[in-house]
Design goal:
By secondary structure, the chain is an alpha/beta fold. It has 18 helices and 17 strands. The longest helix has 19 residues. The radius of gyration is 22 Å and the shape is globular. Bound molecules: S-adenosylmethionine and iron/sulfur cluster.
Length: 455
């Protein structure tokens, strides 16, 4: 058996800080197949074919932001009101067409996610029209419909338009409440504005309001982090995601680093090192668990059952996701799909398809991957490691046996407690869970299991 430290981590007295050198990637996965070319006839056939999925989602992408935050590389296009309006018109039209196709209407959707970019930058009437377009699809009774974005500019008109058109979950990027940290990161609004607005929105009788925090931002000392964590509780929001800062290539921060600079607050050049960030994660996890919040994944906690996080949970389980918009990703009939980000090409694809013959959504430039034969297994593994508990009885017996030496190495390195059949991740394992997922797929690539998995 071949092992490497990137699969197993290393043995150290403090696995939380030292099991791996660095988080391997934002998400794990394996892909060794080549993209497919789909001709327009096959595209038409896809939409004429009813869904075979047991659970499914819609993902709708809004690739606009008003400002390029220092840490982020999701920025695609500046928010120009005319451009957004034209984009939303096209999206709404495409959703209308899709909802009437056999693929679109053959079974109800469990969850819908409008992500970006910054979808909350849409005007109130655009949010409303998009919400209405979503309602044309068959949706399960307790469907979750999320609108992503930020609090700045998300005024009462937008909030009401969203509520009235069916959105029932709001995911706002806060990143840090600290005003100095925020200014350096290129965020709008100071701490007081955020605290007040979140407290106000969280009073809604049923909608779930969740926020994202990042740990490791320049100027964000441990003291600032503890205040950030306390602010989450004080605002009354229903859920929180804690993300370790990843050095994303193409971000402003990354460019500055290339020149030996740090984009930091005027009064502090502090930036937590990797070990401190591990401690920040531990303090965050313990903070929410001490307040009786429930952990739904390694980075997401909820105050109570109002927050369900259905999209994020199901997306990791490899379900069908119909993608709409430039830069949207999803999965159709088992094929991974990633729409091209180029807005001009995306519009051109729609303009070159005459309305009169449009019975299926326009085929936009996109990358299509062949079905992954082990998708169902990968989903069990990813979901188990992400939630912190992998029940190995859900794996074929031969695969579970084949992976046992790897699980034992993880146990030896303080990342898991393996008491067969349950593999539960320690706090350190949860912090490094993306490395564990990547490491497991690396292990299988280096030590393939050739026997018949069905046995
Ligand atoms: C696609 S962004 C959308 C956020 C929203 N537009 C906003 O302004 O807050 C989703 C989330 O990705 C996370 N994110 C972005 N860049 C990151 C980085 N470099 N490291 C870790 N998380 C990051 C942030 O927490 C952010 O809220
Ligand atoms: S954090 Fe949000 S607003 Fe800032 S660049 Fe990323 S996607 Fe755009």
């Amino acid at each position: 058996m071949q092992f490497t430290p990137t699969m197993t981590g290393i043995n150290s007295p403090d696995p939380l800080q030292h099991a791996f050198k660095v988080k391997s990637a934002p998400h794990a996965g394996r892909s060794n197949s080549r993209p497919l070319t789909l001709d327009s006839q096959q595209w038409q056939q896809w939409w004429q074919q009813p869904s075979q999925a047991t659970q499914r989602a819609l993902y709708i992408h809004l690739p606009f932001c008003r400002k390029r935050c220092s840490f982020c590389n999701f920025f695609e296009n500046g928010t120009n009101p005319e451009k957004v309006s034209r984009y939303v018109d096209t999206l709404v039209e495409q959703l209308r067409i899709a909802a009437d196709t056999p693929l679109g209407n053959s079974r109800a959707f469990d969850t819908v996610y409008v992500g970006g970019g910054t979808p909350t930058d849409m005007q109130a009437d655009e949010i409303f029209r998009l919400g209405e377009a979503i309602q044309r699809f068959k949706l399960v009774d307790d469907v979750e419909i999320t609108l992503e974005g930020r609090l700045n500019g998300f005024d009462d008109d937008k909030w009401q338009a969203a509520n009235q058109s069916g959105f029932n979950r709001f995911s706002f990027g806060v990143q840090s409440f600290d005003t100095d940290v925020r200014i350096a990161a290129g965020r709008f609004d100071d701490k007081t504005v955020l605290l007040n607005r979140l407290a106000e929105l969280s009073q809604h009788p049923s909608a779930s309001v969740v926020i994202d925090l990042i740990f490791g931002l320049p100027g964000q000392t441990m003291d600032v982090w503890q205040q950030d964590l306390q602010a989450v509780i004080d605002t009354g929001v229903h859920g929180v995601d804690l993300y370790q800062l990843i050095g994303l290539s193409g971000s402003r921060m990354d460019h500055a680093k290339g020149k030996g600079k740090v984009i930091a607050p005027a009064n502090s050049q502090y930036q937590a090192d990797s070990q401190t960030r591990a401690n920040m994660y531990a303090i965050g996890a313990n903070h929410f668990e001490a307040h009786n919040w429930q952990r739904l994944s390694s980075c997401h906690w909820r105050r109570d059952a109002r927050e369900r996080s259905i999209y994020n949970t199901l997306a990791k389980s490899g379900i069908e996701i119909l993608p709409f918009g430039a830069g949207a990703g999803g999965s159709i009939h088992g094929h991974g799909c990633m729409n091209g980000r180029d807005l001009k090409q995306w519009h051109q694809a729609h303009n070159s398809t005459p309305d009169t013959v449009q019975t299926v959504p326009a085929q936009v430039p996109q990358m299509i991957m062949p079905p992954n034969p082990s998708a169902a297994l990968d989903a069990v593994i990813k979901r188990g490691l992400d939630t912190g508990l992998l029940d190995t009885r859900l794996l074929p017996a031969k695969l579970a046996k084949h992976l046992t030496p790897l699980f034992e190495q993880w146990q030896h390195n303080g990342l898991t407690d393996f008491s067969s059949p349950l593999l539960s991740l320690t706090l350190a394992g949860r912090f490094w869970n993306v490395n564990l997922q990547t490491g497991l797929f690396e292990f299988l690539a280096a030590n393939p299991l050739k026997q018949d998995l069905a046995a």
